[in-house]
């Protein structure tokens, strides 16, 4: 298995901070917001009421009921509460879903660049990760002909991620429909990572579960970290076909037993969002996106398409004449701006750098100013050539 580039950069950034350096953290995908007051109050009340016991393995029935209603309200999909499994975070949900469905030697198609866990978990389970490229020439949409050409008799699963990390791409309806048709034709499982589903900038989100033939073969992975700014609460969930749920429950019994009871009561309140926290946060991300992408495109050698979702700026740095690793090293060591070389998300990302704009507008403005200042390092190299 492999680690995550974001955490490696974060560790070095913290070292520099310990030395007294000013660091602007744009490496981690963590909203700078916190859950609304009512969510905090719900957790505190649950603790005061003694809700700190073992509870149902699949999750509190009240939370699963609320999630089913939430998914119907926000994604227009009908899900039975019995098909929901609460997990201690999305990574755990992703890992356990792949553990339940994959055997050694099974092939897993996944996006490159993409979340590093896809290939890492597959390898850890003895499966074979097979990347399909998200190219700037195709606006980072999956190329259906490429995906189709990589399906073999050993292919077991396709992983989709829309909106995507690190590109911010929202898959088009036609792309998702074609992926669904491939999955049905070849009898494949689809793991739909929808953790950023609420963070989109225009249009209506369409879940992979919506397409014909998909409810019986699709597992949705989602959670509370991004849309509800609850990263440290470690709350995720899986929507699974009925025959998969017992396998996920068996894994839960043998690993985490159940998710903390009081956090689940807080999650119910988060889903209801009576204070409008999620729409307000997304509106702020939209403003930051406009500002930061504009500022990045003014940096010599940088080119950035506005992301359609999530909160990442995926910057093409080929115009600088330097490698992404060199750029990120210069930014961190000389400018105090932490960003991630694109190769951390797969070989197809080698000419890109990922910035998170889940930071304050003031931080983003300062980061852009610092980046522009140190860009003289690669401008000098270009002049020399």
Helix/sheet category: alpha/beta
Q: pLDDT below 50 for ≥5 consecutive residues: which ranges?
A: none
State the order of secondary-structure elements, H for helix, E for strand: HEHHEHEHEHEHEEEHHHEEHEEEHH
Helix-residue proportion: 40-55%
Mean model confidence by pLDDT: 96
Q: Helix count, per DSSP? A: 13
The amount of beta strand, in percent, is 5-15%
> Strand tally, please?
13
List keywords for this structure.
alpha/beta; 7-stranded mixed β-sheet; 4-stranded antiparallel β-sheet; 13 helices
Please outline what is shown here.
The protein is α/β, with parallel strands linked by helices and 385 residues long. The protein is built from 13 helices and 13 strands.
Report on this model:
It is built from 13 helices and 13 strands. The model has no long low-confidence stretch (mean pLDDT 96). 50% of the residues are buried. The longest helix is centred in the last third of the chain and has 20 residues, at 277-296. The chain is α/β, with parallel strands linked by helices and 385 residues long. Helix 3 packs parallel to helix 9.
Topology:
Blueprint: H1 5-18, E1 24-25, H2 37-48, H3 61-75, E2 84-87, H4 90-101, E3 107-112, H5 117-124, E4 128-133, H6 144-149, E5 155-161, H7 173-186, E6 189-193, E7 218-223, E8 236-239, H8 245-253, H9 261-272, H10 277-296, E9 303-304, E10 312-316, H11 324-335, E11 337-338, E12 340-341, E13 352-356, H12 361-374, H13 376-384
Parallel strand pairs: 1-11, 3-4, 3-5, 5-6, 6-7
Antiparallel strand pairs: 2-8, 7-8, 9-10, 10-13, 12-13
């Amino acid at each position: 298995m492999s680690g995550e580039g974001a955490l490696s950069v974060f560790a070095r950034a913290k070292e520099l901070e310990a030395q007294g350096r000013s660091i602007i953290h744009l490496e981690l995908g963590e909203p700078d917001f916190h859950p609304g007051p009512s969510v905090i109050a719900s957790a505190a009340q649950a603790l005061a009421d003694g809700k700190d016991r073992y509870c149902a393995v699949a999750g509190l029935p009240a939370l699963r009921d609320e999630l089913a209603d939430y998914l119907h309200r926000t994604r227009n999909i009908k899900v039975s509460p019995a098909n929901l499994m609460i997990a201690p975070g999305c990574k755990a949900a992703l890992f356990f879903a792949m553990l339940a469905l994959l055997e050694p030697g099974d092939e897993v198609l996944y996006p490159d660049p993409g979340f590093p866990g896809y290939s890492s978990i597959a390898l850890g389970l003895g499966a074979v990760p097979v990347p399909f490229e998200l190219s700037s020439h195709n606006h980072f949409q999956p190329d259906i002909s490429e995906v189709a050409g990589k399906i073999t008799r050993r292919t077991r699963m396709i992983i989709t991620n829309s909106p995507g990390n690190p590109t911010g791409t929202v898959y088009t309806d036609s792309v998702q429909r074609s992926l669904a048709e491939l999955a049905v034709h070849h009898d494949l499982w689809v793991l739909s990572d929808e953790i950023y589903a609420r963070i989109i900038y225009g249009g209506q989100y369409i879940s992979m579960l919506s397409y014909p033939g998909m409810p019986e073969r699709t597992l949705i992975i989602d959670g509370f970290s991004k849309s509800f700014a609850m990263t440290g609460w470690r709350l995720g969930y899986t929507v699974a076909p009925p025959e998969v749920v017992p396998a996920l429950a068996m894994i839960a019994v043998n690993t985490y037993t159940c998710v903390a009871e009081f956090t689940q009561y807080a999650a119910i309140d988060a889903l209801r969002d009576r204070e409008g926290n999620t729409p307000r946060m997304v509106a702020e991300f939209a403003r930051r996106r406009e500002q930061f992408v504009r500022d990045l495109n003014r940096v010599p050698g940088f080119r950035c398409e506005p992301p359609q979702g999530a909160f990442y700026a995926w910057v093409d740095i080929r115009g600088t004449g330097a490698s992404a690793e060199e750029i990120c090293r210069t930014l961190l060591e000389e400018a105090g701006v932490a960003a991630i070389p694109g190769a951390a998300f797969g070989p197809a990302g080698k000419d890109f750098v990922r910035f998170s704009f889940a930071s304050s507008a003031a931080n983003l403005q300062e980061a852009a100013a610092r980046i522009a200042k140190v860009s003289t390092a690669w401008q000098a190299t270009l002049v020399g050539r």
